[in-house]
């Protein structure tokens, strides 16, 4: 029995010792981390959800196949046209990863220097933006070669299809923005319809593949002529809308910086 | 004898242990009550916290109701009172310690698992609750108008959510016109979208976490490969309205009370001022009488009654 009590006492002493602040301090000194940023951090900054280069390459390959399939389906591409497009897409991928390597080398140089690491991070921004915007979208080799290989009839189909897609995206973005507005401003059916129509009039640039699309639509809401809403919204709603529009206007500089807004926009 | 003496300390320890166990098993009545009071207080504090947290959603719903049907002052007053119960009920139901599954945090958002085992959100619960409590106070016409507006809004929200999902899918897998229509129909007809749900898109290789069976049957192999490789993000959101832009008092009784309080205060102040003025007048009168009396003393004339009393 005495032995059991002694054991309990021992256990309590050990527990107390290990939870004391002094003990933690000793451990801290022993396992102090090295002031170096892990290589995986670079991948995580740049490739985000794709995690690493291999994951990113795999996804880009799949994306390229989808785009090739789309072009073949929509424009009935010949084998030779497909071949040229495939080569162009691979060129885009190579060009991108060449730039990645340059940044990676810089990262390796500076990974012990935490203070200067922000420089590497800043230089990664354009690459991130490129990836976010889509590697095979406009200004890419793929897009340029597509223009080059399509004949007149195919180009007409392309223009028509692009216009349809943009219009579909614009209408959807407007509907989404109005529902977003309703999260702070109550609207009845008639008011919703009028605001939707007004926003369709101002929202002309809708790049879908951006996480800042919400802010862009908020900005477009601020472009609505408020005089046209006086008979539609009541006083309290109008007051709320004005405040909301003010905030939307304030996004202009940021949106221009992100390349989502042309410099000649009305509210500037 | 010596053996018996040796055994004594262990017997004492055993007794003490028994006493401790009894204390744990049957705590004193006062202690049990104190614990119970503490529990109730903690529960009430949590309730209050939840009620405050969700009040902006209710306020927005009340403002919506006001714009669906013209309400009389009496209706607004009654609904305002009844609507308090909506949040109270939801709060007490959510903090049911026996069923912690009811309230969960997912990506920092409050998600509710309701009795039917369907995922819902706080916004839907508040909307449903408000619809229920307003029933007795609305006329048949008002109820119909409210129902109609709710339906329009639900359709707009569902449409926006389907739009959002389709745009993101289309951006990644490039749907043909036929595929787009098929997937759209599948979502519109078969998807039970959460009322406050939304999916944060705009990231490369990211797709909304939606039921695969509504999309995959319509994709070709190349598109399926992209679908497989993309990360799926879910963000069933609890949306708390930002009241910096729009804040409306549904029923302004508090203001009326303030007005009454101001009037009462004004009356009291006026009464006080009158009393002070009367006292001042009285004091002045006394002074004048005293002066007269002093003058009379000097001249030998009779002293006024008030001054004589004072002297």
Classify the helix fraction of chain A into a percent range. over 70%
| Count of runs of 4 or more consecutive helical residues of chain B | 9
**Separation of termini of chain A?**
85 Å
Largest interface summary: A-B, 55 and 53 residues
Structural class category of chain A: mainly alpha
Listing every helix as H and every strand as E from the N terminus to the C terminus, the arrangement of chain B reads: HHHEEEHHHEHEHH
Strand content of chain B: 5-15%
* SS class of chain B: mainly alpha
Q: What ranges of chain B have pLDDT less than 50 throughout 5 or more consecutive residues?
A: 97-110
N-to-C SSE string of chain A, H for helix and E for strand: HHHHHHHHHHHH
Residues in helices of chain B, as a percent range: 55-70%
Strands of the widest sheet of chain B, in order across it, are 1-2-3
If you average the pLDDT of chain A, what whole number results? 85
Roughly what is the average pLDDT of chain B, rounded to an integer? 77
Outline the biggest β-sheet of chain B.
3 strands, antiparallel
Number of helices of chain A: 12
User: Main β-sheet of chain A: number of strands, strand sense, barrel status?
Assistant: none
How far apart, in Å, are the first and last alpha carbons of chain B?
103 Å
* C-alpha Rg of chain B (nearest Å): 37 Å
| Strand coverage percent of chain A | under 5%
